[in-house]
């Protein structure tokens, strides 16, 4: 696959359709305008709402098409840039592909432009169903502590196009770019190639977008489709679906003739990479890596008891981030310094308050079934679980065993509350609540000293809240008002 943009000057006066005007769509529009492109803006929002979003975009906007994605919206485009929230199966996009119009995502656009601005920036790409934001932030913090010029972008809320535009305008400099990448973002890549890539886990998520798990795994595996023998790939040995993605490495070998250096992380077995033993993380290097990397890996041991963030899932996140950093040339001491101080991110197993011996935890980012399972595994028991929201076609019956073992009561809210109750409601006391406030009040009523009230919804937030951050803030505000 050849790049669409071979020279920056090629974009001048090209007609580019930007489909979807979320954060990445707005950032892509700004970047394209700065290079002289003419834009067609298409979004499902009204034209009035789109105009408000475009206030900060200065450039040539030829047409604005709102209220959906009609086929004629993309007819005159030379290139189509699709935001991750818009499926590539959208009829107007399918029609554009059929007509031979190049269709790419914001990550691919940004990558192609970045490679023309500054060739030697090392890209670290991180994907997975759960843990992406924490692992990406940890990797960024490790490299920053090590004195490297590093930026953080992607699905974490800071679009790659925005970073590339700042680099273009000489507002920043960087040697490394850490990218959190969702499956939606990976769908739109063509030539994008991270120097270092990690798949943290692949568990059922977004099944309302993908036809089956095979399609979801294929989307995640795209992160390494363009890697070669000079690159590094980090995989979770304990996750069956992640290991199944290895079959797609055959395609890499057939295209490149070489495979990336593959390392694993595991909580249960000694592997080439990072492994957990006696409450410490050890690193085991392959022979083919440089002597400096091998020496640093073998001399680095991380004691879990020194980590500021807790939870077995965070041990996995730290293993993955440490491997990415060490393979990037980071010193083990820099990693040790950060894990002793890093408090974690908001809305991810975030302690809120203790009231009468009851601890309240905000895990609003737990938006799928496996995330809830990992969160519950972090507690010995006596958990009052607040769950529910907009279903993503999750299989809540997969939580039966862990609910029996760890959960004292279920408090269910949102559109999915009846589905969750049907799957789990006969295992423990179950209450269907009208909103977050009534759920928290009920939790306080039934909780006793030693219990944990955990918000880990297992669902999207959009039925009742703007996003998972809003949901978490509402939960914290209610808890702090008790």
TrEMBL record:
Pathway listed: Cell wall biogenesis; peptidoglycan biosynthesis
Q: Which residues does the UniProt record annotate as the domain Mur ligase C-terminal? A: 347-457
Which residues are ATP-binding? 128-134
Q: Which SUPFAM superfamilies does the record cross-reference, listed alphabetically?
A: MurCD N-terminal domain, MurD-like peptide ligases, catalytic domain, MurD-like peptide ligases, peptide-binding domain
Taken from the record, one Pfam family name reads Mur_ligase_C
Q: Which reaction equations make up its catalytic activity?
A: UDP-N-acetyl-alpha-D-muramoyl-L-alanine + D-glutamate + ATP = UDP-N-acetyl-alpha-D-muramoyl-L-alanyl-D-glutamate + ADP + phosphate + H(+)
The compartments listed are: Cytoplasm
Per its UniProt entry, which superkingdom is the organism in?
Bacteria
Q: Which GO terms describe its biological process?
A: cell division; cell wall organization; peptidoglycan biosynthetic process; regulation of cell shape
One GO cellular component term: cytoplasm
Q: Does the keyword Cell division apply?
A: yes
Q: What is its EC number?
A: 6.3.2.9
Keywords of the record, alphabetical order, are: ATP-binding, Cell cycle, Cell division, Cell shape, Cell wall biogenesis/degradation, Cytoplasm, Ligase, Nucleotide-binding, Peptidoglycan synthesis
Tell me which residues make up the Mur ligase central domain: 126-324
One Gene Ontology molecular-function label: ATP binding
State the family it belongs to: Belongs to the MurCDEF family.
Role played = Cell wall formation. Catalyzes the addition of glutamate to the nucleotide precursor UDP-N-acetylmuramoyl-L-alanine (UMA).
Please state what the protein is called: UDP-N-acetylmuramoylalanine--D-glutamate ligase
Give the organism, scientific name: Thermodesulfovibrio yellowstonii (strain ATCC 51303 / DSM 11347 / YP87)
